Amino acid sequence: xxxxxxxxxxFSLHPVLQNITLTLCFLVMLSSAGFGQxxxxxxxxxxxxxSFNEMLNRQADKWKANWKQDDKARIAVTAxxxxxxxxxxxxxxxxxxxFPPPENPDQLRISTPNIVVRTxxxxxxxxxxxxxxxxxxxxxxxxxxxxxxxxxxxxxxxVTSQLFTNxxxxxxxxxxxxxxxxxxAGYQLMNANRLNDAIELFKLNVQFFPxxxxxxxxxGEAYAKAGKKDLAIKNYEMSIKLNPKNDNGKKxxxxxxxxxxx
Length: 262
Known about the structure:
Layout: H1 14-56, H2 60-65, E1 74-79, E2 82-87, H3 89-97, E3 109-111, E4 115-120, E5 123-133, E6 142-153, E7 156-166, H4 175-191, H5 195-208, H6 213-225, H7 229-242, H8 247-257
Parallel strand pairs: 1-7
Antiparallel strand pairs: 1-2, 3-5, 4-5, 5-6, 6-7
Helix pairs in contact: 4-5, 4-6, 5-6, 6-7, 7-8
């Protein structure tokens, strides 16, 4: 007979508690990561939408604050018969300053319903369509495709590049697209030193679209380059009357009246 009795086996909670604790920590980490990613995507969406609106409405200080302002920043704008791009922050500022101001900004309706955001560490992209409805567009509005890249700078996301494509400009049935295409062709003629031909085309654009401000602005510029001061003043004044926010037209008009270099 064996008198050695076995000690009762003790059940320890320590391994179980450790496993539960580790599992909970893992779940918390996953939840925090998902929450952080969600916050990043929401921030990027807000910046993407604001950046387009602020550039369109000439809110320069707000627009600049969204950017990583360095020599690697890039912007490109493409439309039917038009393309412009700039590399480096100083070049971007100069290019954006040449963009025409919005017509009747108080009457603009801007919508960006679906922004697709992709994040990978400190880099991100946003891909979206923006529709702008104004008095000069039809009910469908003007549609822009924007592709933006972002980099995380500290705790903030900053724009590093933007590619804008005016989708509506390729629509031959859009009155605004026709106006813009004629206007672009006029500038191509002017850049090719065919100033008289450019004037004739701008005059035709004014005839086709007498209530649009930009054709008058372009015709005024062409007349000014041709040395026809009175006609330049007349067309710039009409452009400003149709669009009181045409600050570039106001500056040009002042230079012409004061005989300053254009």
